[in-house]
């Protein structure tokens, strides 16, 4: 099979603010996010011929977005899925672009995740309004009646086993939360910018063991988008292109069950262990060459299992890497440099990709006067969050322990 490496680029990123209450429709926010991404790339609607989104029955379909923006589509897509989807949609689009079926695709996620459908499986009606939809079959038919209706509860089972197996502490979760909040404090777009400490994390209330309030991603309203096109078209656009080297699209582990399986021998083992050789092989790079990463942080523990599964460290070694400051802006693997979904805002992973793109362009928007021209001081005390060396980026995502996606990007 012919490689797609460097044939397709991300050329534009954009989004609405992360809001506690948007008072807007998902269509309105989608249009704003895509329009900003087009403006960022220097594209007009007539120069885009694909629109792709994803949702969980909580957003607007691609054809409505295309019509509202004046885009005539050669490709339209709506996937029903969650956190591991934006990387997968980008790879779908890359294959279609390389095959000549379309040339420029806008990828978006729009959600009223605080004032509309909440990811915990609850509707606007309140705590008693459990949404039962077509995902409530297979192993979920046993989990939901037991009250396991949220990602936090599901990840909690894996996290408890991990803590027991390796003698780890929830202070590691606090170190993750505090690091990402420190990054968010330098990000003008972040929803939560007040610094926190590990002690603040340890004092925050329990939600579902072993997770406290500060372990959870934010609930907010937002839309975020990015645009992919061919290498040839990218040369004529406004921003320096960020090349897609390779990736994996929702690869599952060879497990007896396709979803969360509570009888797995090692419950904390993530699908990335089975996917990483394919990922690094088709991208042509190694984990230790990555300069900046986004790691899907639905809860803080996700960062631990994804670091280990994709080979950034060995199984059981993530707490040491984190405690040593390895995920900080000047660490060995700067991670979620905009604050991640714990502190910047939650957009089902699209915002994480956008942040890596900004870092690889050397255009991370912060307090440096010259950031827009790529001139950074790298002085963290003065408000700079640009990673010093940023030429290779990894966007690592998961839709639970047993499936994941990833993109490897190069400036």
Account of the protein in words:
The longest helix is centred in the first third of the chain and has 16 residues, at 26-41. This protein has helices at residues 26-41, 62-69, 85-98, 140-143, 151-166, 171-184, 198-203, 231-234, 272-283, 300-309, 318-323, 340-343, 350-361, and strands at residues 8-15, 50-55, 75-80, 104-112, 206-208, 211-212, 221-230, 242-252, 292-295, 392-398, 403-410. Strand 5 and strand 6 (211-212) form a beta hairpin. It is of the alpha/beta class. It contains 13 helices and eleven strands. The chain has a single domain (8-116, 219-410), classed as Thiolase/Chalcone synthase (Peroxisomal Thiolase, Chain A, domain 1).
H/E topology pattern = EHEHEHEHHHHEEEHEHEHHHHEE
Strand order of the largest sheet: 3-2-4-7-1-8-11-10-9
Q: Which spans of ≥5 residues are poorly predicted at pLDDT below 50?
A: 126-132
Give the domain tally.
1
How much of the polypeptide forms β-strand, as a percent range?
15-25%
Q: What is the CATH C level class, in words?
A: Alpha Beta
The average pLDDT value, as a whole number, equals 89
Could you tell me the CATH topology label.
Answer: Peroxisomal Thiolase, Chain A, domain 1
Sheet with most strands: 9 strands, mixed
Number of strands: 11
* Radius of gyration, whole Å: 20 Å
Assign an overall shape: globular
- Kindly report the name of the CATH homologous superfamily: Thiolase/Chalcone synthase
Q: What structural class is derived from the secondary structure elements?
A: alpha/beta
Q: What percentage of residues falls in helices of 4 or more residues?
A: 25-40%
Give the termini distance in whole angstroms: 24 Å
**How many alpha or pi helices?**
13
């Amino acid at each position: 099979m012919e490689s797609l490496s460097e044939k397709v680029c991300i050329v534009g990123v954009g989004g609405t603010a992360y809001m506690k209450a948007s008072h807007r429709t998902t269509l309105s926010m989608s249009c704003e996010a895509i329009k900003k991404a087009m403006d960022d790339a220097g594209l007009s609607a007539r120069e885009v011929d694909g629109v792709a989104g994803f949702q969980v029955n909580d957003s607007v379909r691609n054809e409505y977005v295309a019509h509202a923006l004046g885009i005539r589509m050669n490709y339209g897509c709506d996937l029903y899925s969650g956190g591991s989807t934006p990387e997968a949609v980008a790879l779908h689009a890359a294959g279609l672009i390389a095959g000549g079926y379309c040339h420029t695709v806008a990828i978006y996620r729009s959600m009223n995740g605080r004032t509309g459908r909440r990811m915990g499986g609850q509707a606007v009606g309140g705590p008693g309004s459990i949404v039962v939809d077509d995902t409530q079959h297979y192993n979920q038919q046993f989990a939901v009646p037991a009250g396991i209706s949220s990602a936090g509860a599901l990840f909690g089972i894996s996290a408890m086993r991990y803590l027991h197996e390796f003698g780890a502490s929830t202070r590691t979760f606090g170190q993750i939360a505090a690091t990402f909040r420190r990054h968010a404090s330098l990000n003008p777009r972040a929803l939560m910018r007040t610094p926190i400490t590990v002690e603040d994390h340890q004092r925050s209330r329990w939600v579902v063991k072993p997770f406290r309030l500060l372990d959870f991603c934010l609930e907010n309203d937002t839309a975020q988008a990015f645009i992919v096109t061919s290498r040839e078209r990218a040369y004529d656009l406004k921003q320096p292109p960020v090349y897609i080297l390779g990736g994996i699209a929702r690869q599952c582990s060879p497990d007896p069950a396709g979803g969360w399986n509570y009888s797995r021998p090692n419950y904390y083992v993530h699908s990335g262990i089975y996917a990483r050789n394919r990922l690094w092989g088709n991208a042509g790079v190694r984990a230790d060459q990555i300069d900046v990463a986004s790691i899907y942080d639905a809860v803080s523990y996700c960062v631990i299992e994804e670091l280990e599964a994709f080979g950034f460290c060995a199984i059981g070694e993530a707490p040491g890497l984190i405690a040593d400051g390895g995920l900080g802006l000047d660490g060995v693997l700067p991670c979620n440099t905009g604050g991640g979904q714990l502190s910047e805002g939650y957009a089902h992973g699209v915002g994480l990709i956008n942040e890596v793109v900004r870092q690889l362009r050397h255009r991370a928007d912060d307090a440096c006067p010259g950031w827009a021209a790529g001139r950074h001081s790298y002085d963290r005390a003065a408000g700079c969050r640009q990673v010093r060396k940023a030429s290779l980026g990894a966007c690592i995502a998961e839709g639970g322990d047993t499936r994941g996606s990833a993109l490897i990007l190069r400036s």
